[in-house]
Amino acid sequence: MLHTFIALVDDKPGVLTRVASLFRRLSVNIVSLTVGESERDGVSRMTIVCEGAENAAHRIRASLYKLEVTREVDEVSRAEAVIRELCLIKVGAGPNSPHGVHSRTQIFELAQVFRARVVDLAPESIMLEMTGSASKIEGLLQVLRESSYEVLEVSRTGRMAMRRGHHTSKVLKALGTKTAAETPVAYPVRPEEDDLPNQFEEEEA
Amino acid sequence: MTDTIDAIRNTTLTGSEILWATLVGEGVSTVFGYPGGAILPIYDALRKFPIHHVLVRHEQGASHMADGYARASGKVGVCMATSGPGATNLVTGLATAMLDSIPMVAITGQVSSKVLGSDAFQEVDITGITLPITKHNFLVTRAEDIAPTVRLAFQIAQDGRPGPVLVDITKDAQQASCIFNFEDAAPPPARPHPMLRAESGAILQAIELIKNAKKPIILAGHGINQSGAEAEVIAFAERMHIPVASTLLGLGSFPASHPLSLGMMGMHGESWVNNAIQEADLLLAFGMRFDDRVTGNLASYAQNAKKIHIEIDPSEINKNVKVDVALIGDLREVLQTLLPMLPASNDAAWLKQINASKGQAAVRDIVNLPDNGHLYAAHVIHDIWREAVAAGRETETIIVTDVGQHQMWEAQYFRHNAPRTLVTSGGLGTMGFALPAAIGAKMAAPEKDVWVIAGDGGFQMTAAELSTIVQEKLHINIAVINNGFLGMVRQWQEAFYDKNYSCSPILSPDFVKLADAHGIPAAHITQRKEVTPIVTKARTGSTPFLINFAVEKEDGVYPMIAPGSALHEMVRRPNPLIETAED
Ligand SMILES: Cc1ncc(C[n+]2csc(CCOP(=O)(O)OP(=O)(O)O)c2C)c(N)n1
Ligand SMILES: [Mg+2]
User: Fold this and answer.
1) How far apart are the first and last CA of chain B?
2) Cβ-defined contact of A171 to B192 (cutoff 8 Å)
3) What value of ipTM does the predicted structure carry?
């Protein structure tokens, strides 16, 4: 099954190698890994999606904690979390493309349905930007391909995850550091229509 | 020590001086190392500090010495080497320490920060190379960072599950200067581990399992010694009358002569120990990690038993063996919580049953074989133990073994009754470990009798350190168990490769002459009756002493569990009485 971990790690040179090397040692395939700044100075946030046996999560989490650079690890595979990915897609849309001159309007329509944005127009191509769950991005790509559009380039960020609602960071608290989560934020409970259910839950069901 | 630190507080020092000052502040009195270009500033500054530097003959030796020092004393062992080849020579020793969770700090010189990454002379990416074989490592490029980094390295090496830490210091950082203040460089308190827990629910569950068990066994691991829980384990075992089986690295943590001690478990464990584990209804795993060498085939391992695992490293839980209750935390603390909650029991039926099953094994036991003119390694080792007992030095004797058959015979026939009396490479099984590790052990515990027990193969891997022994004037006794073979390899070839002894016969120099070349007195022994007198001579002398024991060439370690076999499916020693009657 797929496991999703959020790891808060020191923002220092070599940290990514340490994390990546750990997965290599455990022979766990990383499906996607995103790194960026977090709400705290000196702390990077990673979302790591990997393949592993059902019971592998404990060991991966415990092993991540063994890295001296790790501050906190959260496993959100089964939790209520928002999981998003950003994708850039370049589609062939010149006069010589399979759908010829009509391709542009059709791609615009498709983009609207999928809530993707057109971010670049060139004589021979259109670039789309889309944010969503992985399955939605895959949905758009599939429709493009099945309608014989020429998908010239795809660039995906990999998944980013964040738990819904109140989430106290135990470690940061133990370290005496204030976190944003200490003041509980009530998230609006409104069913977002573009919000597909957590796809991992889907898989398990 | 504090004098040195006081005298230089808030003065400007070079990075090299800061390194030594920080080591002094951390309580280091001995380091093991070898100089070279990228670490020369550090060596130049050594003379100003009250630290003894042991010049080794190969950096691998330095790493094993630091390791042996740590194992014998419980303190952090320190080794150092220059960049490039010096640093790569430490790799085997770091891996050895990593797999056995030994607290160690390795300092390496590195090329100047300005040329890092340019393939400069003797530049290697040693933090990259050692990433998976250190608990953590650092690259330091500024003098200001040396004291805080080295102090943090000491904390990491000892905190939680210990391990080796490497600090790579560029030459320009060694040469630059800044203000030194030991106290200001203190690391923040060790980070709390969010997965450490021995929740009351789990504790109660454990108590229930223990109370209801009819056939419980304690599996005593290295964690007992690491946590300093020897007394608690004895109290626990005695209170509930639970027999204790040891892992290789657990030997000594529970006295071998204690009536509840069963002996070593696993691949070369005694039959009654492994049979008892297979029959047990409860396993209490104390600071051990269910290594494949102790479980045999996992699918058939201790199937009747509920399992309670007390362990400080959460990643060990359910790694190899699925357990029923996990108490994650420091063993000593967890046992202190459990003890008062346990009712006393003196149900001796289970222990009696196990003891009764020893009978048949005793007939086959090689130590019960009378002297028949052959010299058996098992006899040699047992006689070294008996000599120490007779001299009242048993618990004051540290045995440092190499890896191979002799190591297993040591584990079987030297009865360790005190902690830290056996120093051996368990997890990595590093040949060449014994001689240098013994130097570290002797420096850590000069008042102890230190014996090296090494095979003819492994001894040759690091024999150059004989010269270090002489230079340091150390009284270390060396027993070479010389069987003319890479014995353990030969035994596997005998058992699993049709006796095709491919590359396992090994030629050795005349070890007596080799010792002589070093000015070390030595003897060549071929008869059992000569063993005890020569052992006494070596022990009571004031110089190092080497004994070349010409033992049976094709002897085997028994019982033996073939890889993949269940723990109770052991290959037994052919009855030695019958075997020798034929020849
Ligand atoms: C560095 C290293 N290389 C190879 C091995 C594999 N190995 C394990 S035991 C052994 C034989 C050891 O022979 P010797 O030192 O003579 O000891 P004996 O088994 O004969 O007692 C070998 C080659 C090892 N453990 N370590
Ligand atoms: Mg040999």
Assistant:
1) 64
2) yes
3) 0.91
Is-contact A62 B313, C-beta < 8 A? yes
On whether the CB atoms of residues B101 and B222 are closer than 8 A, the answer is yes
From residue B169, how far is each of A46, B67, B142, B378 by CA, in Å? Answer: 29, 21, 8, 47
**CA-CA distance, B255 to B234, in Å (whole number)?**
9
Strand pairing report for A160-163 and A81-92: antiparallel
DSSP annotation of B254: B
Q: Is B401 helix (H, G, I), strand (E, B) or coil?
A: strand
Instruction: Tell me the C-alpha distance between B248 and B289, whole Å.
Output: 12
Calculate the alpha carbon distances from B65 to A204, B109, B436, B465, B516 in Å.
53, 19, 5, 10, 23
Chain B partners within 8 Å of A68 (Cβ) = 135-136, 156
For residue B312, the SS3 value is coil
Q: Which residue of B has its CA nearest to A21?
A: B132
Q: Does the global pTM surpass 0.90?
A: yes
Report pLDDT digits (tens) over B481-521: 999 999 999 999 999 999 999 999 999 999 999 999 999 99
Verify whether the Cβ–Cβ distance B315 to A66 is below 8 Å.
yes
Number of other residues whose CB lies within 10 A of the CB of residue B337? 15
Assess B117–A contact: CB distance below 8 Å, yes or no.
Answer: no
Take residue B99 and report the two structure tokens written for it: 């797999």
Beta partners for residue A35, in sequence order: A46
Distance in angstroms (rounded) separating the CA atoms of residues B305 and B323: 10
Please state, in angstroms and rounded to a whole number, the distance separating the CA atoms of residues B229 and B288. Answer: 13
Q: How many CB atoms lie within 10 A of CB A12?
A: 11
Distance CA B541, CA B334 (A): 45
Tokens describing residue B350: 């289970």
**In whole angstroms, what separates CA B323 from the centre of its chain?**
26
B136 contacts on A by Cβ (under 8 Å)? 67-68
CA distance linking residue B240 with residue B321, whole number of Å: 24
Please identify which residue in the block is written with the tokens 């030969």: B490
Peptide bond into B559 cis (omega under 30): yes
Interchain pair B194, A68: CB under 8 A:
no
The number of residues in chain A equals 205
Contacts of A168 (CB under 8 A, 6+ apart): A179, A181, A182
Instruction: Report pLDDT digits (tens) over A67-116.
Output: 999 999 999 987 789 999 999 999 999 888 877 777 888 899 999 999 99
Could you read off the pLDDT of B98-157 as tens digits, one per residue?
999 999 999 999 999 999 999 999 999 999 999 999 999 999 999 999 999 999 999 999
- Please give the C-alpha separations between residue A136 and each of A143, A152, A197, B241, in angstroms, as whole numbers: 11, 19, 11, 62
Burial class of residue B312, CB neighbours in 10 A (0-12, 13-18, 19+): buried
Residue whose token pair is 């709400």: A39
- Which residue owns the Cα nearest ligand 1 atom 4? B431
Report yes or no: B242 and B354 within 8 Å, Cβ to Cβ.
Answer: no
Question: Two tokens at A148?
Answer: 């014989």
| Chain A CA closest to residue B125 | A14
**Residue B313 φ/ψ, nearest 5 degrees:** -100, 110
In angstroms, rounded to a whole number, what is the distance separating the alpha carbons of residues B72 and B221? Answer: 16
- How far is residue B358's CA from residue B352's CA, in Å, rounded to a whole number? 10
Alpha-carbon span B520 to B465, nearest angstrom: 12
A21 → closest Cβ in B132, B136, B192: B132
**Closest CA to ligand 1's atom 5:** B431
Question: What is the rounded distance in angstroms from the CA atom of residue A145 to the CA atom of residue A203?
Answer: 24
Please return the burial class of B464, using the count of CB atoms within 10 Å of its CB with bins 0-12, 13-18 and 19+: middle
CA B111 to chain centre: 33
Cβ proximity of A33 and A47 under 8 Å: yes
